[in-house]
Amino acid sequence: MLCNIQNTVVKYNRWNERTKQEREGTITMNKKLMEFLCEETDWEAVNNEELLHELPEFDAEVDAAVNEGRIGAFTKELSEHLGEMDIYKASLVTGFIGSVREKEEDTSAGEDILKFFAGCCVRLCEMFQSSRVAEGYPQLGDERLLFDRNKNWVRAYYGFDILCNAVMAFLSRDAALRKRLLTIGISGEIKYLCDETAPSPYLETISHIKVMQNTCGVRKLVVLWPEKKKGFYATANDLSNCAHLLFLLEEQMHKTFGEEYDMAEFCASDFMVRLSHGEYLDECWDDYYEPHFMECDYVTARHDVMEKDDIMSLIWGEAPPDDIRGVDDRGIIVLWRDGINRSFSPQNLVVFHEALRPFVKIDRELTDEEYTAWIQKIREKINSTRRQGGY
């Protein structure tokens, strides 16, 4: 883990230096405000969430930007200079940017926010790694002494949950930014901060970002039922795991097809249905849902009757929707009426941000010709993969 952190530090520093050079000389905001944002925060101010408002020029700049209709441009300029600011103040600035941009549904500052977030994740991992004891969670000890040892660690730590909430404001609205986060190379750091550190008010939201990494955007699907030689096109959106996707899929099959697809009933509680569509209800967390079908990977569509080994190709509930394999940019789900019994818990159905719009929509049923064409495509792909040594 430490080696990975060091590699990420080098990559982040190069990245930040490059963007800093590209932006040199582009600052147009109030000079006194920029100087204040770059001035290092001392121990007495490092946990003051109202720090930005102690400089009158900050509120004056915000008011002017609003009145002149350039608040978007102002927040974009702020985001472009996060890497030059004091780390704690920059974290507070991200909170301001996030609150403004989510109202505008504008995610153009997201790339800059993610870059700053990556650097803070690295710093926090360094801090916790340096505080590791023989067993159990890392122990930070006296944070005042830690501040004397490495001020930027503590500045990043105290501003981290504010920063994470800003990151969520962007990730929840922009699926492309979720994919971008995966390419930055800090998935290990995010996992470490979620799983290997003690509970802290400054780390409350990082677990939501871990989930958001795997939350799909618009995901095109084709669903096949070989036993009946029929199927349909569907679209999924803003879902973090396949259990949630399959739950909403069966709900829509019941509503759209009913008995035609052996879904005359949808045996889920009202609590779980409401939870799956974004409500947060403090009840019945020991409830569960047993899927009507056994949903499998596309390789099982090579035959019309379920075989014993098809269980090995089950679509696992914990897997991200983007992991569903497919053909021609469509994930393929194969339905089998018989198979193993399994259940999904309410935790699989939680929607982690109010801006997410989780749904599965059935677009239209396949014609007989289209069904036959999809089966042919699948068999060709299976044969091609086998020739290359797969399966």
The percent range for strand residues is 5-15%
Number of helices: 15
**Tally of extended strands?**
6
What Rg do the Cα atoms give?
A: 25 Å
The SS-based structural class is alpha+beta
Oligomer: single chain
Topology as a string of helices (H) and strands (E): HHHHHHHHHHHHEEHHEEEEH
- Shape label: elongated
Regions with pLDDT < 50 over 5+ consecutive residues? 1-15, 18-25
Helix content: 40-55%
- Could you tell me how far the N terminus lies from the C terminus, measured between alpha carbons in angstroms? 32 Å
Mean pLDDT: 89
Largest sheet: 6 strands, mixed
What topology emerges from the helices and strands here?
Blueprint: H1 2-23, H2 31-38, H3 56-67, H4 71-80, H5 87-104, H6 110-130, H7 143-149, H8 151-158, H9 160-171, H10 175-184, H11 187-195, H12 206-212, E1 219-225, E2 230-237, H13 242-256, H14 270-276, E3 294-296, E4 326-327, E5 330-336, E6 359-365, H15 368-387
Parallel strand pairs: 1-5
Antiparallel strand pairs: 1-2, 2-6, 3-5, 4-5
Helix pairs in contact: 1-6, 3-4, 4-5, 5-8, 5-9, 6-8, 6-9, 6-10, 6-11, 7-8, 9-12, 11-12
